[in-house]
Write a structure and sequence with these properties.
Blueprint lengths: L1 E8 L3 H12 L5 E4 L8 H4 L32 H14 L6 E2 L4 E7 L4 E6 L4 E9 L21 E4 L13 E5 L5 H8 L5 E5 L6 E2 L8 H8 L1 H16 L11 H17 L3 H7 L11 E2 L3 H5 L4 E4 L3 E5 L2 E4 L4 E3 L2 E4 L13 E3 L6 H4 L18 E3 L12 H21 L4 E4 L1 H15 L27 H9 L6 E4 L5
Parallel strand pairs: 1-2, 1-6, 2-3, 4-17, 6-18, 7-16, 8-9, 8-16, 9-12, 10-11
Antiparallel strand pairs: 4-5, 5-6, 13-14, 14-15, 19-20
Helix pairs in contact: 1-11, 11-13
The structure holds NADP nicotinamide-adenine-dinucleotide phosphate.
InterPro entries: FAD-bind_Monooxygenase_sf, FAD/NAD-bd_sf
Protein name: Cation diffusion facilitator CzcD-associated flavoprotein CzcO
Pfam families: Pyr_redox_3 (PF13738)
Length: 489
C-alpha cells in the first residue's frame, strides 16, 4: 500500500497539466495513475490517419508553461501534440510521479481515516487524501446500434483503435459515421482505397479549416513565448466571440455561422441532391460544428459514395442497409464515437455512507462547477460533467479547474480540515441554474448528440462562454462546502 497526498487518475492532457501545476506549487506527494503503458490520453489513443486538433495549436496548450511548444502548423496533428505532451512530462520531471499500467477500477472514501482507498485491476491499493479524476470524456469506443459486428468476414476496427497492420490500399472500405473523427479520416484514405463508402446517419455543419504550416520566420517569432501567448490570446478572443453560435435564438454570430457553412457546402458540392443530403435538419451547434474543408472534396471523388440509408446490420459480406441492399466490403472503420454519458465506464467510486457515484448519477452526471460532487469529499473531477465546449478550447476549462483545485487544497490546509465536501443544496442550486441556461443553447436543440441523455439532460456541455466559467471558478466559496474536521471526517 502506498500513501500520497494527491492521486490523479489519468495521464492525458488533463491529468498531466494538474501534475505540473502541483509541481509548480512545490508539491511532491502526488501520483498519476494511468491504465496504459504511455502518457498522452486521447492523443496517444487516436492514431488514425489525419488525426489532428480542431482548435489552433497556440490555443491548445497550457498558458502556464514557460516553454511553449514550437508548433509547426496552425492546427497541430496528433504526432506533434503527443510529442509535446511527452516533452512536457520530461521538462516538468513528471515521470517519477507517473505509474503506467495502473488501471484504477475502484475508489472508496474511508470515512474513519478521511482518505481515498484506490484500487487497481492488478489488486494494488493506493491511499490518497485527495483524488483527482482526469479520465476524460471521449475514450470508451461506442458501437451503439450496430448489430452483428462479429459476423463480418473482413477487418473492422474503431477509429480510436486504428489497425495500422490493415493495409487499406486497393480495398473496399466503409467509414461508419461522419463526425469529427470521420471527416479527418475520409480525405486521408480516399485516395488509397479501391472504394470508400461513407455511412451518414445525420449530416453535420462544416466550416473551413484553412490549415497551413508555419514558415520558419513565424516559428522563430513564436519561439519567444510572449508572442505566442499574444497569438493565443487573439485566438481565445475570436473563439469566445463565437459563443452566440451555440445559442438557439437567432443572433448575428449564429447567422454568420450558417452563412459560412452554407457557402462552404455550395462552393465545394456542385450536386444539389448531394447538398441536400449534407445539410443538417437540426440547429447549428446542436452537435459539434466540424472544422474541415477537405471532407466535401473527398466525397466528390469517383471512388467515394455517401450512403444515407440507415444501417440495419453487419453481415459477413459487409453492411446491410434498411432498404435491403448489401454493401460488400473488405474493411469497416467505425468512426461511431464514444460512450460519453456515464462519465465512469467501469470505474466504481464510493463516497460517504457507501454512496455509489453511479447511483447518484443514475439520471445523468452532474457536479458542482463541473468539478465536485456532494457526498464525495476531496474528489475533484477535471473535464467533468458540463465542462465540454462547442466554441472554444478545453484547455481553458482545465486551467480554471487546476486553479480551483489548488485553492481548495489551500483552503483545506487553512481550515485544518480533513476534507471538503460540497453541500447538496449548493450543487443542486448550481445545476438547476445551469440546466435552465442550457435550455437556451443549441445543445438543447432537436438532435441526438453525445452531449445529452435520451431525455434531454445535458450532461457534457457548459452553458456559456469560457469567461463565464472563469468567473464562476475564480473564487473557492467555502460556504458552499462542508468542512470535515478530523473527528467528523
Ligand atoms: P461523434 O462525433 O460522436 O460521431 C460519431 C458518428 O458516428 C456520428 O456521425 C454518428 O451519427 C455516427 N454513428 C454512431 N452510431 C451509429 C450507428 N449505429 N449507425 C450509423 N452511424 C452511427 O464521434 P467522433 O467523430 O469520434 O468525435 C467525438 C468527439 O471527439 C468530437 O465531437 C470532438 O469533441 C472530439 N474529436 C475532436 C477532433 C478534433 O479536434 N479535430 C477529432 C476527433 C474527435 P449521428 O450523428 O447520427 O449520431
Amino acid at each position: 500500500m502506498t500513501e500520497y497526498t494527491i492521486a490523479i487518475l489519468g495521464a492525458g492532457i488533463g491529468g498531466l497539466g494538474m501534475a505540473a501545476k502541483l509541481k509548480k506549487e512545490g508539491k511532491s506527494s502526488f501520483v498519476v495513475l494511468e491504465k496504459a503503458d504511455a502518457v498522452g490520453g486521447t492523443w496517444r489513443e487516436n492514431t488514425y490517419p489525419g488525426a489532428a486538433c480542431d482548435v489552433q495549436s497556440h490555443l491548445y496548450w497550457y498558458s502556464f508553461d514557460d516553454q511553449q511548444p514550437d508548433w509547426t502548423r496552425l492546427y497541430a496533428q496528433q504526432p506533434e501534440i503527443r510529442q509535446n505532451v511527452e516533452s512536457f512530462v520530461e521538462r516538468y520531471d513528471l515521470a517519477p510521479h507517473i505509474r503506467l499500467n495502473a488501471e484504477v477500477n475502484r475508489a472508496e472514501w474511508d470515512h474513519e481515516r478521511g482518505r481515498w482507498l484506490i484500487g487497481t485491476t492488478a489488486g494494488e491499493q493506493i491511499v490518497a487524501e485527495v483524488f483527482v479524476g482526469a479520465w476524460g470524456q471521449l475514450n470508451r469506443p461506442s458501437f451503439k446500434g450496430i448489430e452483428g459486428r462479429e459476423s463480418f468476414r473482413g477487418a473492422s476496427f474503431h477509429s480510436a483503435q486504428w489497425r495500422h497492420d490493415v493495409d487499406l490500399a486497393g480495398k473496399r472500405v466503409a467509414v461508419v459515421g461522419n463526425g469529427a473523427s470521420a471527416v479527418q479520416i475520409v480525405p486521408q484514405i480516399a485516395g488509397d482505397v479501391a472504394s470508400l463508402t461513407v455511412f451518414q446517419r445525420s449530416a453535420n455543419y462544416h466550416v473551413p479549416r484553412m490549415d497551413r504550416a508555419y514558415d520558419q520566420d513565424e516559428r522563430q517569432l513564436y519561439r519567444g513565448a510572449a508572442r505566442l501567448l499574444e497569438s493565443r490570446e487573439a485566438f481565445f478572443a475570436e473563439h469566445e466571440s463565437w459563443v452566440g453560435a451555440m445559442k438557439l435564438d437567432a443572433n448575428p454570430v449564429l447567422d454568420e455561422f450558417y452563412r459560412i457553412a452554407r457557402e462552404l457546402l455550395e462552393t465545394q458540392v456542385p450536386d444539389a441532391e448531394l447538398r441536400e443530403k449534407l445539410w443538417p435538419d437540426y440547429p447549428l451547434g446542436c452537435k459539434r460544428v466540424l472544422v474541415a474543408d477537405d471532407y466535401y472534396p473527398a466525397l466528390m471523388r469517383d471512388n467515394v459514395e455517401l450512403v444515407t440509408e440507415r444501417i440495419a446490420e453487419v453481415v459477413p459480406e459487409g453492411l446491410r442497409t434498411r432498404d435491403g441492399a448489401v454493401h460488400e466490403l473488405d474493411v469497416v472503420i467505425y468512426a461511431t464515437g464514444f460512450e460519453t454519458l456515464s462519465f465512469l465506464g467501469d470505474l466504481e467510486i464510493t463516497g460517504r455512507d457507501g454512496r455509489s457515484l453511479r447511483d447518484v448519477w443514475h439520471d445523468g452526471a452532474r457536479a458542482y462547477l463541473g468539478t465536485t460532487v456532494s457526498g464525495f469529499p476531496n474528489l475533484f473531477l477535471l473535464y467533468g460533467p458540463n465542462t465540454n465546449l462547442g466554441h472554444n478550447s478545453i484547455i481553458l476549462m482545465l486551467e480554471c479547474q487546476y486553479d480551483y483545485v489548488l485553492q481548495a487544497l489551500r483552503t483545506r490546509a487553512e481550515t485544518s480540515a480533513v476534507a471538503l465536501d460540497v453541500r447538496r443544496e449548493a450543487m443542486h442550486r448550481f445545476n438547476d441554474r445551469l440546466q435552465e441556461t442550457l435550455r437556451g443553447t443549441a445543445f438543447a436543440g432537436g438532435c441526438t448528440s453525445w452531449y445529452k441523455t435520451a431525455d434531454g439532460h445535458i450532461t457534457n456541455n457548459w452553458s456559456g462562454s469560457v469567461g463565464e466559467y472563469q468567473e464562476a471558478m475564480r473564487t473557492f466559496r467555502l460556504d458552499d462546502y462542508e468542512v470535515l474536521q478530523p473527528a467528523t471526517a
